[in-house]
Amino acid sequence: MEKKIKFLKDKANTIRKLVIEMLAEAKSGHPGGSLSATDIVACLYFEVMRHNPKDPNWSERDKFHLSKGHCCPAIYSSLALSGYFAIKELMKLRKLGSLLQGHPSRCIPGIEVASGSLGQGLSIASGMAIAAKIDSKDTRVYCLMGDGELQEGNIWEAAMSSAHFKLGNLCGIVDCNNFQIDGRTEEIMNIAPLADKWKSFGWHTIQCDGHNIEELLLAFKEAKTIKQKPTVIIAQTVKGKGVSFMEHVVDFHGRAPTQDEKNIALGELNKN
Amino acid sequence: MEKVYTRDIYGKTLLELGKKHQDLVVLDADLSGSTRTIFFGREFPERFFNFGVAEQNMMATAAGLASSGKVVFASTFAMFAAVRALDQVRNSICYNNFNVKIVATHGGITVGEDGASHQALEDINIFRAIPNMKIIVPADGPQTKEAIMAAYQIPGPFYVRLGRWKSATIFKENDFTFGKGQIVKEGKDLAIIACGIMVNEALAASDLLKEKGFSVTVANFHTIKPIDSELLIDIAKKHKKILVCEEHQIIGGLFSAVSEVLIQKYPTQVKPIGIKDEFGQSGSPQELMDFYGLSANNIAGKAEEFLRQ
Predict the structure, then answer these.
(1) For FRET with A253, which of A86, B121, B181, B218 sits at 20 to 30 Å CA-CA?
(2) Is residue B16 annotated as part of the catalytic site, yes or no?
(3) Quick check: do B3-168 and B182-308 share a fold?
């Protein structure tokens, strides 16, 4: 277990470095939420999910959908590190004609469905989960949402229907970094109490530290044992996690690091 | 003339398709009795999902199902498909070019007594603007069947617009090709291009005009997108004047689609019959057709005026 945790921590650190590099190169994009989601994403791609980078459409794969599409740098890095496409593609992020669009697009190997317009992802993931049930497959579907995103009404429509359709194969993860573009989530539009909301919608609810690999792995393991209802993991995270001057700083929701900031950030991450 | 509810035909066709094709999944949002998806739902409950009054969730879930290889038919009223769930249709369905077939009933002014909130008069305009979307407005029962079969067979997103009331049967079975307009009646003084229930009104108008000595061509353009440019140019070459009739806003619907082609390829005088940038109101379907100038009498009057100009 300790070896596994060390391996995932290293992966997460590598993802963080790639996120910083690709965003500095692109000169635009969303570091804050990418860094808060990194440990969750590392656990999914390098431990929890069944997937095959050599065959992105492998019929026995588990599925992942990034509902908070703007945090795709963390996903793109994980896909590249897994071998879905070359790592050098990351440095063309957001450029004209590049594979890696500013928000996930279906043309990218490993991306199941496009995202970017917030609030639709849980519905999409529930559609994948329903399809797996119809086909009697043991596919598990993971959907990563932002906490600010939970202000979208569509999320709660999907929360309702996923419980109604008893989608035990669906696991939502809320990257609860407490910030959105305009400021602190509790000040802009309070979504608390989150766990109570999901419970009352009929979901199995797990709360954990979204940067503690061991807690995350236990949460994913517990989710797999719940068969009659969907599970949500409410992961408490830090916006901008891992880079001292980005942590808890709302400005880095949607601003890329400059070259100088990139160098400082990489210096910090290289010490890990 | 025989009249049928095109939504009955939709329900029956879906049921037939469902027997043959295991990949077909049907979704509805608390209107399965009205849209007739319940015919399928009763027979195949394991492939039918009712989302309650939540059209946005239905459309985005349809995208997820389609991403997993399902051919999804999603139904509600035209108003809720085109307006309420537009973001989901654009970003989750069309951007991904998914196999989601939106079949909406209760399109147009003839929804009647429910009034303006339920009269979708912008739906064709809205969906026409979205890449990958294909649009069919069937003229009658037999064409509804063909449209549904075509939507199942042809990959990608579709919008099929049906009405609430019975439609007069004009066409025989197998008289429909997706993407192709069709000349229903040939004349020489004027061409009337129509879709949906307006084809029948146009035919009735052509009879009235014949009594006045005018010979009129009537063409059915059931496929609004992609529009049959070839036939349009051919019609324009043979007629100096074209009247376009639709149960929809003049802005952005069939009139716009026709004009966009002809202004570039074969400039011709084209005039619209449709809703003139206003909301509808309550009334019986026939009263509304008369009031908003869509019925055969109105078309004949407008055509005569156009011909005498």
Answers:
(1) A86
(2) no
(3) yes
SS3 readout for chain A: CHHHHHHHHHHHHHHHHHHHHHHHHHCCCCHHHHHHHHHHHHHHHHHHCCCCCCCCCCCCCCEEEECCHHHHHHHHHHHHHHCCCCHHHHHHCCCCCCCCCCCCCCCCCCCCCCCCCCCCHHHHHHHHHHHHHHCCCCCCEEEEEECHHHHCHHHHHHHHHHHHCCCCCEEEEEEECCEECCEEHHHHCCCCCHHHHHHHCCCEEEEEECCCHHHHHHHHHHHHHCCCCCEEEEEECCCCCCCCCCCCCHHHHCCCCCHHHHHHHHHHHHCC
- Tell me the backbone φ, ψ of residue B274, rounded to 5 degrees: -175, -170
A145 CB within 8 Å of a chain B CB: no
Query: Would you call A157 an interface residue with chain B, using a CB distance cutoff of 8 Å?
Result: yes
Is the Cβ pair A123, B65 closer than 8 Å?
no
A153 touches chain B (CB under 8 A): yes
Q: Which residue from A128, A130, A135 is facing B49, i.e. has the nearest CB? A: A130
Model's pTM, two decimal places?
Answer: 0.97
The distance of A254 to chain B (nearest Cα, Å) reads: 21
SS (H, E, C) B167-181: EECCCCCCCCCCCCC
- Asked if A134's CB is within 8 angstroms of B60's CB, the reply is no
Contact B68 A128 (CB under 8 A): yes
CA-based max dimension of chain B: 60
- Whole-number pLDDT of residue B225: 98
B182-308: CATH topology: Rossmann fold (3.40.50)
Q: Phi first, then psi: what are they for B26, rounded to 5°?
A: -120, 135
> Tokens 């809205």 map to which residue?
B126
Q: In B, which residues are within 8 Å of A67 by CB distance?
A: none
Task: Give the active site residue among B2, B55, B247, B305.
Answer: B55
* Residue A56 forms contact with B (CB below 8 Å): no
Residues A153-192 have pLDDT tens digits of 999 999 999 999 999 999 999 999 999 999 999 999 999 9
Q: Please report, for chain B, the start and end positions of each structural domain, with discontinuous segments joined by +.
A: 3-168, 182-308
Average pLDDT, chain A: 98
| pLDDT tens for each residue of A229-257 | 999 999 999 999 999 999 999 999 999 99
Beta bridge partners of B103: B75, B160
Residues B260-281, mean pLDDT to the nearest whole number: 98
**Contact criterion met (CB < 8 Å) for A113 and B54:** no
Mention the CATH class of domain A2-270.
alpha beta
Residue A24 main-chain phi, psi, to 5 deg = -65, -40
* Pairwise CA distance, residues B217 & B194, whole Å: 11
Interchain CB contact of A13 with B (< 8 Å)? no
The torsion region of residue B100 among left (phi > 0), alpha (psi -120 to 50) and beta comes to: beta
Q: Which residue of A has its CA nearest to B45?
A: A134
Any idea which architecture B3-168 has in CATH?
Answer: 3-Layer(aba) Sandwich (3.40)
Which residues of chain A does B70 touch, with a Cβ-Cβ cutoff of 8 Å?
131, 134
The β-bridge partners of A179 are A184
DSSP secondary structure code for residue B278 in this structure: -
Cβ contact B61–A112 (<8 Å): no
CB-based contact B91 A120, cutoff 8 Å: yes
